[in-house]
Write a structure and sequence with these properties.
The chain contains 14 helices and 12 strands. The strands form 2 sheets. It has a 10-stranded parallel β-sheet. The chain is globular and about 55 Å long. Bound molecules: S-adenosyl-L-homocysteine and iron/sulfur cluster. Iron/sulfur cluster binds next to loops.
């Protein structure tokens, strides 16, 4: 235990240290998680910010090998919310004091899609009297597109690197220009340049992934100086190419535990960023998101997509709450967050402190 305590005192954790911490068991594991909880309270306090998640469409031009809504999956029923449904979800978030929403979608790179998002952003800003914060998660786009969306009112963007290891990235994606890791890195750069608070993240427990990859993922996020992170366990989907490696995967409980440690470590090495407690955690453990709030996450993304579409936005299997409307009632969210020892920060944007600090230093 002393070794773990000594490591946690270091200000500049190296790859080998992180590997040791990711492997911590029993008491050592608890020491790590407790330290992360302390650092979270010190740097970002006990507020949890809400982002109402709107899954705009599962129509996607890409073919990522892990994802249930990849283009080649002919078994998925494709949908596109109507503008009215998106605006109603925005209105719901506004009236229920969520403070912010996230618009997430399969990736499309065309003018119709760009324009549609642009107009929706403007309309949501208008209906909420400029009060709702908006995060986008709509994949890789040209710089001009990122700029248009920023000018229309989006101010945060989530684009996961999925893994920072190039060889592994190539095993998870087809080899073509549409799925190049260099392009993904470039997109992250363009997002920063366009003025967004930039979020990225990885999947944890992927086939071919080892503990060293994960340690390097954390150092990658630190080096990129990200403002926000959304990372979660990889969950296999039977209609995807990666499903054939199911037998090589860690048990779900271990993927969950690794995710907790990854989040705790990220909080320790980047104390003032925003870290989301992702939906995939809840697919493994009913109170998974709350557990992760206790060890470092400070953002919750309740799903507010209209219920009838939930089943179709199936990135992975066992996705929670696919048959309910506006996921949890507000009182339920409130109770869950309180059980985790925190408070919901209603009607606040909850921007990344890290971003604000960087801006004031520029
Ligand atoms: N098309 C956009 C946004 C939707 S996908 C994009 O790719 O950025 C959002 C995230 O879902 C992806 O970044 C990926 O990390 C995650 N995801 C996809 N399939 C998954 C799976 N099988 N298990 C866990 N997460 C998955
Ligand atoms: Fe499309 Fe995103 Fe799924 Fe890749 S991860 S197939 S880009 S929705």
């Amino acid at each position: 235990m002393q070794k773990i305590k000594d490591l946690l005192k270091k200000t500049d954790l190296q790859k080998e240290d992180i590997i040791t911490l990711l492997q911590a068991k029993e008491e050592d594991r608890l020491v790590l998680l407790q330290q992360a909880a302390i650092i979270k309270k010190q740097h970002v306090g006990n507020k949890v910010y809400l982002r109402g998640l709107i899954e705009l469409s599962n129509i996607c031009e890409k073919d990522c090998y892990y994802c249930g809504i990849r283009k080649s999956n002919t078994k998925t029923l494709r949908y596109n919310l109507t503008d009215k449904e998106v605006l109603e979800a925005g209105q719901f978030a506004y009236e229920n004091n969520y403070g912010s929403i996230v618009i997430q979608s399969g990736e499309l790179q065309n003018e119709n899609f760009t324009k549609r998002i642009e107009q929706l952003l403007k309309q949501i800003k208008r209906l909420s009297d400029d009060k709702l914060g908006i995060t986008l998660s709509c994949g890789e786009q040209e710089e001009s597109v990122y700029k248009r969306w920023f000018d229309a009112g989006a101010h945060r963007y989530l684009l996961r690197i999925e893994t920072s290891n190039k060889k592994l990235y190539e095993k998870l994606h087809p080899t073509n220009n549409l799925h190049s890791m260099d392009k993904r890195l470039k997109s992250l750069e363009l997002l920063r340049k366009s003025g967004y608070q930039v979020g990225t993240g990885v999947m944890i427990g992927l086939p071919f992934q080892n503990i060293e990859h994960l340690a390097k993922d954390l150092l990658f996020m630190k080096k990129l100086d990200i403002d926000m992170c959304g990372m979660g366990p990889y969950i296999e989907h039977s209609d995807t190419p990666l499903f054939q490696y199911k037998k090589t995967l860690l048990p779900l409980s271990e993927r969950f535990d690794l995710t907790m440690k990854m989040i705790a470590l990220l909080r320790i090495i980047m104390p003032d960023i925003n870290i989301a407690s992702t939906t995939a955690l809840q697919a493994i453990d009913k109170v998974g998101r709350e557990k992760v709030i206790q060890v470092g996450a400070n953002v919750l993304m309740p799903n507010i997509t209209p219920g009838k579409y939930r089943d179709s936005y199936s990135l992975y299997e066992n996705k929670p709450c696919t048959d309910e409307n506006a996921e949890d009632s507000m009182s339920c969210i409130d109770i869950r967050v309180k059980l985790a020892g925190d408070e919901v920060a209603y009607s606040e944007w909850g921007d990344s402190k890290h971003f604000k600090k960087r801006q004031s230093n520029d």
